[in-house]
Design brief:
5-stranded parallel beta sheet, single chain, Rossmann fold, Serine Threonine Protein Phosphatase 5, Tetratricopeptide repeat, binds ligand DLZ, 3 domains, DNA Cyclobutane Dipyrimidine Photolyase, subunit A, domain 3, binds iron/sulfur cluster, mainly alpha
Length: 512
């Protein structure tokens, strides 16, 4: 009897645990394009095209390595539209008596997998997701007994354990663990994104683009131009291009934002890492080598490694530590519906419109735009976390719940009350004006808080602090801002709060 080994659309790595030890003559590897996964949230068109094309290329690669592969295309006759339906069909066709999978990236699918032994009356082996550096149980052990978790301490342990940027005496290279303060320069005048690679579209990709055009044209986002890498070798080329040409500037300008420049010095590798085309340890090793051979400064290499070895592993740990309750948290009781301009980009807030345009056109915007523009606005305006999280999960090509949820619900919205972040990432227009050139092109004035042309972020920022004083004033990191707020006269406070009310009303009626 044989086994059916289900590989999900974000598990496209030959080193994935479920593929190890398969009997190539009898066991069947199943990859299936199913409507359920493409529409449980209505993913961006580029994201669907990227995943389907990468899945089809991966299936060809597996066949060339001698695996017996069953690939079900979305339009194949008989496609049941669900993973469960496709596993059922494969079990029956190949008379298999065992299912093999790797831990999925989303809690809902883990529950589905666990229900299969009962449903199918056979066993299921759920192997660990070895594409991550830190095992889920290892993270749980690290977290256990700690009153408060902080990424920085987790990151230091990972640096030590995997010996990244360490001196032989066990001290961090450069004498510091973290060069974050050197990574916050505002953009220079005329700064533009370096040239990026675009990959020649294979017949497989062209066929997928046609399918997505036909079947998902009513989903958010522009399908073309389509520049994504869809194989491991293409993804490695992009990574090498980033390391050789772009990493040296990554450090200093990580937080900068420029109109018309979605990428700047970011690596654009998250979609590849999250789909299995790249592995985190190989990425970190290349960055360390660039530093050791004098090709990249320490603040760039450390900053980049911290994102992957630190943040990426940490958010995954937080997700699995707190699910399933995590997704329902709403510490600040935020209830407003998501404004229409998160889809249409039709707003006079230039920064938000620009971030939404980048997102619509590329299924990408960089971290600071996600956090300090669309995230910050949703936080200040009190938008319902469930709606915001759904938006983030569907619009970005790198989004899966394990990474999207802690970043959005925790880091951007503070809806977990401080599990992810030690204080809300709330900021006024002053921050956006400093870190971007957006305000120069905006209808609103970042230097004004009250009045017709005042930047909406300003009054919303103070109103946010005032609204949530009962919950936030104990936070030492906000003490300075509360002291400043209390120094304002009652008249000034009332004027600012009225301005915020008017802004929210304009938002609700589509006039912002
Ligand atoms: P770079 O800036 O070049 O960073 C290098 C790599 O570090 C990334 O590729 C990514 O793998 C990793 N990384 C950096 N920051 C984080 C982080 N906070 N969490 C996890 N990994 C990180 N990232 C996702 O991969 N998927 C998401 O769905 C996602 N949603 C986000 C939602 C919000 C509200 C915020 C604030 C951040 C989110 N992030 C998400 C994290 C981060 O914004 C993206 O990883 C990054 O923008 C991807 O672009 P890049 O590859 O050019 O990253
Ligand atoms: C995102 C996605 C999409 C759009 N389509 C599929 C699919 O048709 N088949 C599949 O196996 N996986 C797909 N995926 C990725 C899954 O949604 C992802 O594996 C889960 O969300 C777990 O992270
Ligand atoms: Fe955004 Fe305010 Fe600047 Fe306009 S003025 S771009 S709304 S921060």
């Amino acid at each position: 009897m044989s086994a059916v080994c289900l590989i999900l659309g974000d598990q496209l790595s030959k080193s994935i645990s479920s593929l190890q030890g398969l009997d190539k003559a009898n066991d069947v590897v199943l990859l299936c394009e199913v409507l359920e996964e493409a529409t449980y949230v209505r993913h961006h068109q580029k994201k669907i095209a990227f995943i389907f094309s990468a899945m089809r290329h991966f299936s060809e690669e597996l066949k060339s390595h001698g695996f017996l592969v069953r690939y079900v295309k979305l339009d194949d006759p008989g496609n049941t539209g669900s993973l469960e339906g496709e596993v059922r069909r494969a079990l029956s066709k190949f008379k298999a008596n065992r299912i093999i999978v790797t831990e999925p990236g989303e809690y809902r699918l883990l529950q589905t997998f666990k229900s299969w032994p009962n449903k199918f009356g056979i066993t299921i082996d759920i192997g660990p997701d070895t594409r991550f550096i830190c095992d889920i149980d290892e993270f749980k052990r690290w977290a256990s007994g700690k009153k408060q978790l902080r990424m920085e301490y987790f990151y230091r342990e990972m640096r030590n354990k995997y010996n990244f940027l360490m001196e032989p005496n066990g001290k961090p290279v450069g004498g510091k663990w973290n060069f974050d303060k050197e990574n916050r320069k505002p953009p220079l005048r005329g700064m533009a994104s370096p040239k990026r690679l675009s990959h020649k579209k294979s017949p497989i990709t062209l066929e997928v683009l046609k399918l997505v055009r036909e079947r998902f044209h009513d989903h958010f986002g522009a399908l073309e131009p389509f520049h994504f890498a869809v194989t491991q070798s293409q993804a490695l080329k992009e990574l090498q291009h980033f390391i050789d040409e772009i990493l040296p500037q990554f450090g200093e300008y990580q937080d900068a934002m420029v109109a018309g420049e979605p990428y700047l010095y970011h690596s654009l590798i998250s979609s590849y890492l999250n789909a299995g085309l790249l592995l985190p340890l190989e990425v970190c090793s290349l960055a360390e080598t660039a530093y050791r051979s004098g090709k990249a400064p320490l603040n760039a290499a450390e900053g980049f490694i911290r994102q992957i070895l630190g943040w990426r592993e940490y958010v995954r740990g937080i997700y699995w530590l707190h699910m399933p309750d995590y997704g329902q948290l709403n510490y600040l009781d935020a209830k407003r519906p998501l404004p229409e301009f998160y889809w249409s980009a039709q707003t006079r807030l230039f920064c938000v419109a620009e971030a939404v345009r980048h997102t619509r056109d590329h299924a990408y915007s960089h971290h600071i735009q996600r956090l300090m523009i669309t995230g910050n606005f949703a936080l200040l305006a009190g938008i319902n976390p469930v709606e915001v999280c759904e938006w983030y999960l569907l619009v970005y090509s790198d989004a899966y719940e394990w990474v999207e949820l802690p970043n959005t619900l925790g880091m951007a919205l503070f809806a977990d009350g401080g599990i992810m972040a030690s204080k809300p990432y709330a900021a006024s227009g002053k921050y956006i004006n400093r870190m971007s050139n957006f305000c120069q092109q905006c209808h609103y004035d970042p230097l004004q808080t009250v009045g017709d042309n005042a930047c909406p972020f300003n009054a919303l920022y103070w109103d946010f602090l005032a609204r949530h004083e009962d919950k936030l004033q104990v936070n030492q990191r906000l003490a300075y801002m509360y002291a400043y707020w209390h120094k304002q006269s009652t008249e000034q406070q009332l004027a600012i709060r009225k301005q915020a009310d008017d802004t929210l009303q304009k938002m609700d009626t589509g006039n912002l």
